[in-house]
TrEMBL record:
Record Pfam families: HDOD, tRNA_edit
Span of domain HDOD: 194-394
UniProt-listed PROSITE patterns: HDOD
Protein name according to UniProt: HDOD domain-containing protein
TM ranges: none
MF terms in GO: aminoacyl-tRNA deacylase activity
């Protein structure tokens, strides 16, 4: 074929695509592909699959498809379909490349919501070099039942170092740290590493969010778990709660001493704690796990009572945040035993450094990040996830801020009294102002907890022995 003949061989829309567009009553204009076209309008289609099936994903050519972000969004870790399978699909329809039309592959569809910012979109015709321009409305009609999401990374925000070789050493160091964090995330997501929630925990969670939960319902759940029932009886009988007379049953413990809210949160905390066992290795001179948890929860309870009634968060949930604030510690020991021992050794020789900084230095991730991830993974309340994730940020003001703010204040107050790890650090005035708690009332809350130290340790030991 001569050069002139090749130049005149303009591609045309394949018949199967023409028919599909006609059936859907979609008007289109053929556009030859060239570098001058707006990449924000050019739709990139890719077919992914996993054991659950295929998924067509569409995004702008001005973006990178971030598979990790996609996995976070849909809960599936997908990869590109095998080329042999894709070729078989395309050959069946007489196509040379994948068009952005889910009807061709008969798969579900997910599109990057940024695409809808463009009034006109360019999709592949199935023929290389030929695009089909359609309106945004017709594009959505072609997708049928599809979901939108944010999973694309703008290429404009990925900056390559093309001319600064002296910066390569630092870049390599940062890359290794980032890669380590991704490997940790992958290990966290492996189901073999994270135990599923026990059915008793799920039942307790359902009761926690039920505003009309009855004494009979919580009693029934607790009594089905003999160990949990024994613990509830033991808590109610402890000197800390000073029961007026002998506790004879779970119902007695709930009605006369503890109350429904406290029983649910104590039971949930204990049940989750049993999911991941306490590590055998610990930093020397550290506050025992359950003792730290009980102290923090008790201080938060006092701080919450000091807040104006109309400003208080959900008391039970705030208490639970205190009990579970250090859950990432258990997860760290469960997933990375060798690294956990190394962290313990660093904590021992760096009492002036926060555990978060040590964990970031050694692992590239902190227990707060891991604990919050697991709370999301288990479907815990968003308030609890925020409390774990931002508990060391006294300036946090975003969603559900009162929960991490309360944990932050409680931990800081206790740390300044020698309970917990880290050096003395004054809490900012803004934190007290946001929570509407004076420093005097906050210190009073801590004093009351430390005055009951012997009784709280007794309660913490009951957790440890469960």
């Amino acid at each position: 074929m001569s050069k002139v003949a090749i130049a005149l061989a303009v591609p045309s829309t394949p018949p199967v695509i023409q028919q599909l567009l006609t059936e859907r009553a979609v008007a289109y204009r053929e556009v030859l592909d060239h570098p001058g076209l707006n990449p924000d309008s050019k739709v990139q289609a890719v077919l992914l699959d996993d054991s659950a099936g295929a998924l067509m994903v569409m995004f702008a050519q001005s973006q990178l498809l971030d598979l990790n972000r996609l996995a976070d969004l849909i809960g599936r870790r997908m990869t590109a379909v095998a080329q042999s399978r894709l070729r078989e699909i395309l050959d069946r329809h007489g196509l040379k490349q994948l068009p952005g039309l889910p009807a061709i592959t008969r798969s579900s569809c997910l599109y990057e919501e940024q695409l809808l910012q463009q009034p006109l979109l360019l999709i592949s015709s199935g023929e290389p070099g030929l695009l089909l321009e359609v309106t945004r409305e017709d594009f959505l009609r072609l997708l049928g039942v599809a979901n939108a999401g944010r999973f694309g990374e703008p290429l404009s925000e990925i900056i390559l170092n093309l001319n600064r070789p002296d910066d390569d050493s630092e870049a390599i160091t940062q890359a290794v740290k980032a890669f380590t964090a991704r490997r940790i995330q992958q290990r966290l997501e492996a189901t073999i590493e994270i135990p599923p929630l026990a059915e008793s925990v799920r039942k307790i969670m359902r009761l926690r969010v039920d505003p009309e939960v009855t004494i009979d319902e919580i009693t029934s759940v607790v009594e089905t778990d003999p160990a949990l029932a024994a613990q509830v009886m033991s808590w109610a009988s402890s000197s800390y709660y000073a029961a007026p007379s002998k506790i004879r049953s779970v119902e007695d413990a709930i009605v006369r001493v503890l109350g429904v809210d406290l029983v649910i949160n104590l039971a949930l905390s204990l049940s989750l704690g049993k999911t991941l066992s306490l590590p055998k290795d610990n930093p020397q001179s550290c506050t025992p796990y359950w003792q730290q948890s009980i102290y923090t929860a008790a201080v938060i309870e006092g701080l919450t009572r000091s807040m104006p009634r109309d400003k208080r968060p959900e008391t039970g949930l705030a208490y639970l945040a205190g009990l579970l604030h250090n859950f990432g510690y258990l997860l760290l020991a469960h997933v990375f035993p060798p690294h956990f021992s190394l962290i313990c050794r660093h904590l021992e020789v760096n009492p002036h450094v926060s555990h978060s900084m040590i964990e970031q230095h050694l692992l590239g991730i902190s227990r707060e990040q891991m604990g919050a991830w697991l709370m999301r993974h288990w479907g815990m309340p968003d308030e609890l996830t925020a409390a774990l994730r931002f508990q060391h940020d006294p300036d946090y003001i975003d969603a559900d801020a009162e929960y991490p703010n309360l944990v932050c204040m409680a931990l800081g107050l206790l740390r300044n009294r020698g309970v917990g790890h880290g050096a003395y650090a004054p809490l900012p005035d803004a934190l007290f102002e946001r929570l509407n708690v004076t420093r005097e009332k906050a210190e009073d809350a801590v004093n009351k907890v430390l005055e009951a130290e012997v009784l709280l340790r007794e309660l913490a030991n009951k957790f440890s022995q469960a």
